[in-house]
Amino acid sequence: MRVGVLGARGKVGTTMCAAVRNADDMTLSAEVDAGDSLAMFTDNDTEVVIDFTHPDVVMNSLEFLIDNGIHAVVGTTGFTDDRIAKVETWLAAKPGAGVLIAPNFAIGAVLSMYFAQKAAPYFESVEVIEL
């Protein structure tokens, strides 16, 4: 599988590039960061892009990837219901592309969100304080 990384020079992006390089069944097709052209993905026949960028740029990147039939795994935060609806609209127009949005890859955070969702019906209000 030909995998590209968007946000390749960031902390998580650097780790993702190393992981793809070390995987037997993946080839790192493009390392793209701020100031680089997204066309590097199409020029290098990228099949899937891992996106760890910034909420300010992720939507433009996703629109480009979907328009070009490139799948995306997104670890960037900042997805509102409106943004997700927009991505769903783009995907409906390009049924061959797929997007997985997982803004937190930490198992503790994922479990916390799940438990909070299960507990919510039993409380009138909740405040989460991050330490």
Structure summarized in a few sentences:
With 131 residues, the protein is of the alpha/beta class. It has five helices and five strands.
Tell me what you see in this structure.
A 5-stranded parallel sheet has the order 2-1-3-4-5, with helices on both faces. The longest helix has 13 residues, at 55-67. Strand 3 (48-51), helix 3 and strand 4 (71-74) form a beta-alpha-beta unit. The chain is of the alpha/beta class. The chain has helices at residues 11-22, 39-43, 55-67, 81-93, 107-119; strands at residues 2-6, 27-32, 48-51, 71-74, 99-101. The chain is globular, with a radius of gyration of 16 Å. The chain has a single domain (2-122), classed as Rossmann fold, CATH 3.40.50. It is built from 5 helices and 5 strands. The termini are far apart.
SS summary, helix count: 5
How does the overall form come out from the CA principal axes? globular
Share in helix: 40-55%
Radius of gyration: 16 Å
User: Mind telling me the CATH superfamily name?
Assistant: NAD(P)-binding Rossmann-like Domain
CATH class: Alpha Beta
CATH architecture: 3-Layer(aba) Sandwich
Largest sheet: 5 strands, parallel
What is the string of helix and strand elements?
EHEHEHEHEH
**Number of distinct beta strands:** 5
Number of structural units classed as domains: 1
**How would you state the average pLDDT, rounded?**
91
The CATH topology name reads Rossmann fold
Low-confidence stretches: none
N- and C-termini, Cα separation: 39 Å
What structural class do you assign from the helix and strand content?
A: alpha/beta
Taken as a percent bin, the fraction of beta residues is 15-25%
